Structure prediction request, 300 residues.
Amino acid sequence: MISIEQMGIVLGALPDPVFIISRSGKYVAVFGGRDARYYHDGSGLVGLNIADVVKKEKADWFLQQIGLALDSGNLLIREYELSNKDVRGLREDGPQQPIWFEGRIQGLDFQVDGEAVVLWVASNISERHDMEVQLRALSDTDQLTGLFNRRKLELDLALFHETFERHSVPTSILMFDLDNLKKINDTLGHYEGDEIIVAVSNVCRSELRKTDIACRFGGDEFVIGLPNIELEHAVQFSNRLHECFNRELSRFCMEGISTTVSIGVATMLPEDRSYEDTLKRADNALYEAKRSGKNRVVAG
Prediction:
């Protein structure tokens, strides 16, 4: 068996920091954290309370996890972030990029100074988290335009419809495509056609709110979701967007061929069983815009 002194050396050599923390949030002991790439010396935390180190909202979250671990007796695994805005005493103009951790929290079978305590192992997972974010972005993004793809659109529209059903928050859907793009592709090549698609995508990015979503639905067809927008305002927005498209696309008029945009608009109704019913009306309105001569906005 190893001695208590040797056990202390083992604990001190752990690459990730290990904290013994009481139910009230007091740092009882700190071990490890020897991987200098990710951690600073945490020995100065001993005797302090979590509320002395981080701001109230974050401190309350830590205390909640400690309570859950002690009351359940189970190992808890939680991912969380810490940035300069969370830590007391740091300059507000310090680094803004958060550090992500995986915390493993387990209640211990003894007390310290009459208080139950937990073992909290904190592992820096920032690199893994950033990679996961990038992979999610790639899975949700259209490669050519940088807009969302159809998979992401369907997820968000389903959430919009759920919010509409529960809280009557309106959502409008625009569906549009590019008039005469096939002629451009056949005459000037697909590279020129791709440039037009990218130009339209850039207009979407510049005109939409942060809460809106824009998706390349397929080929030269796009869908925009406008949460909290009724039909009347959605039509007004569509007309303004239509003007922006035409101004931008006028740069690509050549050899007697011009590209314009046709837009169909619809708003979620109480009888819609899913977002697909709304999307279908927007698609029908787009078809009507094309049938009526193209280069126009039609509400369905």
Observations:
- The longest strand covers residues 99-112.
